[in-house]
Design brief:
- The N and C termini lie far apart (55 Å).
- The protein contains eleven helices and eleven strands.
- The chain folds into two domains: 8-29 and 148-294, Alpha-Beta Barrel (TIM Barrel), CATH 3.20.20.70; 35-145, Aldolase class I (TIM Barrel).
- It is globular and about 55 Å long.
- With 310 residues, it is an alpha/beta fold.
- Residues 36-41 have low confidence and may be disordered.
- The longest helix is centred in the last third of the chain and has 20 residues, at 258-277.
Length: 310
């Protein structure tokens, strides 16, 4: 065999967290506090970005993470961030579809060495331990992992490339601090990602159309939801789209308070998962949780299966 299969990868649907004896009597005993300087991520023009950070600066909420692309395409944005804002005010998030690349290496070296930026840098996306190791070595502090599992991503369909997200999280988290980016469709998926080793999780599709998302209007029934690699997003950001690896679609606009409702559902689900695992903090969740590998039959068994009465 010229190209042997060298590994096995699992997705969130392939595993379950095994319950253990628990001393926890209430979810209020569980803390989800995580030591990190990440607050939020926005995508916008250089001018809008500067105004947004200025407004955030006076809000007193702490640091803000600003997303940039690679050096070849986003040098002005990178220079503006470094020159205008203090390292204690911002986190730079380098967001590239294939993060294990010369483009990423050049960008990290430019920010760290050429510009001397000493603040926090998040970089991604990657899906292997070696890639995680390299990005940390090149100057990143935390790595976004996930190639292809996003709700609006078509990378795997377009290219055939990627790695199942649950195993990606397990493997990459052994190298350094990671953010699980993509594939999370429920609180249970978020819990599995955190238990597998992620320090943070990112959700997109779960929040689509909720009241704190861009373009939401309580008088409009629908909202556009698009992946950052979609034709619409690439055209808006770069003025051209050569090879889109994402989709854009229209989703139903959710009611006022829907963003908070989704976040509360995530928090309560994760806390319940931790109580089943017998832990009361995220560090122990990552260290002590055990999993069972399942078959595809579990997908149906996981769901409510009582006949619906119409």
């Amino acid at each position: 065999m010229l190209n042997p299969i060298t590994d096995e990868g699992l997705s969130f649907d392939d595993v379950l967290i095994i319950p253990h004896f628990s001393n926890i009597t209430s979810r209020s005993e569980i803390t989800l506090l995580q030591k990190t300087s990440l607050d939020t991520v926005w995508y916008m023009s250089v001018e809008d970005m500067e105004m947004a950070v200025d407004r955030w600066r006076v809000s007193g909420y702490g640091k803000i993470a600003i997303s940039v692309g690679c050096l070849a395409k986003d040098k002005d944005r990178i220079n503006s961030l470094i020159q205008k804002f203090d390292k204690d005010e911002i986190i730079i998030c380098i967001d590239i579809a294939h993060g294990h690349s010369k483009n990423m290496k050049d960008t990290l070296y430019y920010i760290r060495k050429a510009q001397g930026f000493e603040g926090s840098i998040i970089a991604g996306n990657v899906c292997t331990p070696q890639a995680t190791r390299d990005l940390l070595h090149w100057g990143a502090d935390m790595i976004k992992v996930g190639v292809g599992p996003g709700s609006a991503c078509t990378t795997r369909l377009k290219t055939g490339c990627g790695f199942p997200q649950f195993t990606t999280i397990q493997k990459c988290s052994t190298v350094g601090p990671i953010i699980a980016d993509g594939g999370i469709r429920s609180p249970g998926d978020a819990a599995k990602a955190l238990a597998a080793g992620a320090e943070l999780v990112m959700v997109g599709g779960m929040l689509a159309g909720t009241d704190r998302t861009p373009q939401w209007n309580e008088n409009e029934p629908f909202v556009e939801f698009r992946g950052m690699a979609s034709k619409a997003a690439r055209t808006s950001y770069e003025g051209v789209s050569k090879n889109a690896e994402g989709i854009s679609c229209t989703v139903e606009a959710k009611p006022v308070g829907s963003t908070e409702a989704v976040i509360n559902e995530l928090v309560e689900g994760i806390k319940s998962s931790m109580s089943y695992a017998g832990v009361d903090n995220l560090a122990d969740f990552r260290k002590k949780t055990t999993f069972v590998k399942t078959t595809s039959a579990i997908i149906n068994e996981n769901r409510p299966h009582i006949l619906e009465v119409v």
